[in-house]
Amino acid sequence: MSYLSLPSSSSFRRTWKYEVFLSFRGEDTRNSFTGHLYAALQRKGIYTYKDDKRLQRGERIGPELLKAIEQSQISIVVLSKNYADSTWCLDELAKICEGIAQPGYTVLPIFYHVDPSDVRKQRGDFKHAFDKHEQNSSNKVPRWKLALKQVADLAGYDVRNKSESDTIDEIVKDVTHRLKHRFSSLADDLVGMKSRAEAFEKLLNLDSWDDVQFVGILGMPGVGKTTLAAVVYDRISHYFDACCLLLDVSKVYKGPGLAGLQEQLLSETVGNDQKVWEEHTGTNLISNRFRQAKTLVVVDNVDHADQLEKLVGKPEWFGAGSRIIITTRHKRILKMHGVSRDKVYKVELLNDEEALQLFCVKAFKSDVPDDGFEELTHSFLQYAKALPLAIKVLGSSLLMRKKSEWEALLDRLKEIPNQEVMGVLETSLFSLDQRDKDIFVDIACFFKGEDEEYARKILDHCGFNPEVGISILRER
After folding, report:
1. How far apart are CA 408 and CA 401, in angstroms?
2. Of 137, 29, 135, which Cα lies nearest the Cα of 83?
3. pLDDT digits (tens, 9 = 90+) for 182-196
4. What's the whole-number mean pLDDT along residues 72-79?
5. Which helix (H) or strand (E) holds 183?
């Protein structure tokens, strides 16, 4: 299917604010086709401009609307029986078809119960409309006719004798596919993320849609599990019928509980508007509502098996082709939920080159250190130990500071660790029971670099039962 790609112009620099602009005749389709299309785009998270306010006949469209057209990456024109009656719609269409764009702008016509050839040749209702406009001696008529012909010459969607709901589904899939470059480019802005995202996507087996797959992202706090999941979610969400990103589940679980997340999952995917007051009801609804839908769900920062059981339960809850992505620092939780070892991606720390690049981006807004800051940069990277969170926090705190301030902050860190970083890292320690905390502290303080069997004997002699404790620490 071909679309109108407006010519680029060196005199314009287009900035996308909206992903889709909807042009339509309100009296014809506001409460029917266009209303349903807008709702479907919104459910997919596509930022859509839909202007329901129309000026009286003869009034000019305002600067806000003109700007919205200029800032929209895709313009969808719903050509209905009375579209050409409206001078407002025709002015809107002429603006859409101007050569103001840069590459990537798309115009997509929808022929809503009208013959595309009637639109192209201005016959029937369209001829009657232009006859009236010419009687009013409007000097815009030639421009309007040209714009209408331009749009009608495009391959679009003919709604005649077709299911409107099926057509809307096709349009939404088409639009999300055309916007996928936005998703794939997100990883390019995050140091080290593109290669990790591509490696993780291989585990998702996106070439096969016959079964439901649960896939894990494993790693220590601050290593970038959530970021990786969000990047992949944006890159692949256009493949699915329904999508939901459930962030920081463990925090919600310890607070108000999972009912709110269950309600979010139902609302963002199948459009369920039922209030979920308690978790048992939410679990029952989820287990029944997704069976026919190819669904993508990210369950982020899971630290208890109960969270998965109540949110994404079993594979048979979801339609063929569904993918459930779980991020956690607990390897055992993934095992308990049946995620096989070959479906777990472990997020490693940054390599030296990535760590330097990330730090420089945050501290200098550059890929290399400023002159005279090379040695201090190395010292801060030694402290951060290639942990992305630590590098981001430290780099951001040093931006636009003098060399003396860098030196003072480095001295302070030797005595008092950065609380933002430590707060995240401590979550792993505080989630252990007391005996496992004691084993962790003893290993960190007394057995670093020692033979494991030697450490086990000492810990066992002290009554710590290290067989279980060390296994738990290793899983986290």
Report:
1. 11
2. 29
3. 555 555 558 888 899
4. 93
5. helix 180-186
Note the pTM of the prediction, 2 decimals. Answer: 0.68
User: Which residues, in sequence order, are bridge partners of residue 22?
Assistant: 50, 76
DSSP 124: T
Query: What are 68's two structure tokens?
Result: 């919205």
- Does position 307 have pLDDT exceeding 90, yes or no? yes
Q: Which residue has the tokens 């945050």?
A: 362
CB pairs under 8 A, 24+ apart, for 61-70? 61/88, 61/91, 61/92, 61/95, 65/92, 66/95, 68/17, 68/18, 68/21, 69/21, 69/95, 69/96, 70/14, 70/100
> What is the residue extent of each domain of the chain?
18-178, 181-346, 352-417, 432-475
For the domain made up of 181-346, the CATH class stated in words is alpha beta
Residue 8 CA to residue 157 CA, distance in Å, equals 26
What positions carry a catalytic annotation? 92
Q: Which residue has the higher pLDDT, 465 or 259?
A: 259
What does the pLDDT read at residue 81? Answer: 94
CATH 3.40.50.300 fits 18-178, yes or no: no
Q: What is the pLDDT of residue 189?
A: 57
